[in-house]
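lol so apparently i was supposed to do this last week
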Amino acid sequence: MSADTEPRPPSADPETPFLRAESVEVAFSAGFAPGGGRGTARAVDGVHLDVAPGEIVALVGESGCGKTTLARTLLGLERPTAGRVLFEGAPLSYRSRDLRAYRRRVQLVQQDPMGSLNPRRTVYESVVEGLRVHEGTTVDELERVERALSRAGLRPPERFLARYPHELSGGQRQRVVIAGALVLDPEVLVADEPVASLDASVRGEILRLMLELRDQLGLSALVATHDLGLAWNIADRVAVMYLGRVVELGTVEEVLSAPAHPYTRALLSVLPDSGVEEGPVVLGGEPPDPKQVPPGCRFHPRCPVLASGEAERAGVADRCVSVDPAVLSGGAERRVACHWAAADESGRLPSADPAHP
Ligand SMILES: Nc1ncnc2c1ncn2[C@@H]1O[C@H](COP(=O)(O)OP(=O)(O)OP(=O)(O)O)[C@@H](O)[C@H]1O
Ligand code: SF4
Ligand SMILES: [Mg+2]
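anyway here it is w/ magnesium ion bound
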């Protein structure tokens, strides 16, 4: 195996979290609240999430649930209002020099390559940019740009160097964006809706590329997406977000084959061949508003299990409307933040980590 494709050695201490969000909250000042005064949007409202070396974690949920805000916070682009982000066990430092060093190890992959690539720059100029920002002009920059293009599947790389974005297909442009991230030899990619702007035909190619990067380079990734099908195809673990919280967490098989949270079940039920017994579930109620997080379980105004009386029959309806399910820990075990699911599973499915009541 060439040095080019050698996987990274696993983190020295498996107990040390690699990339971690710990009790992260991000609140934005958001105009005037309905009752008067300034409102606060609790975009991320207490999230624990770990990404292990070589692991791909999908962050899924409806528009506005806080995926991008959490992704930006993990990148150090947004500063948490409370809680912290840790990398290799050390809290992120927001001093500009430290952030620069961090951002070469944890790279953003932008969606919409047409928007993120400068139409007047060649592929070479676009990919080399990050390298020059961090290292200035180096003698081996051509070699490094070619290696990044090659890793991103643009082969032979010399054929692409002098091209402009309008001379490339949508999939090739997305590969150039990925090469721009890879040129700095990062350890983690944070991708926000990485294939949302692409045709269905090239989505699969880009997803396969991300899996190859994980397998060949040992890269980790956090992929924010509203597309559960994408999560299914690419991720090892899935974190389902609702109104700023992770409400269900587990391996792809656990969460998507046997969803336990009524929100996850509703999201899955509208996919073809979802296997959800009750058929498509249309969520009623107001769309969630992070300026007005409901008391009790934040999903309760829209919860089909509460509305149908199932929660009442399970003896948890009072808790649904008055007790906020505990924040889930972010590690490898399956978790669900739902009183009914926890009761239903008779404790088989831990609803929360005792360390984070
Ligand atoms: N800079 C900001 N100022 C005020 N509110 C913000 C800001 N950024 C995000 N929000 C609000 O925070 C909430 C979460 O937004 P975010 O973009 O993280 O959601 P998302 O899950 O990525 O949605 P989408 O799927 O539409 O991309 C939304 O209600 C949004 O309006
Ligand atoms: S805790 Fe109650 S309201 Fe919330 S999702 Fe579970 S059943 Fe529904
Ligand atoms: Mg988003």
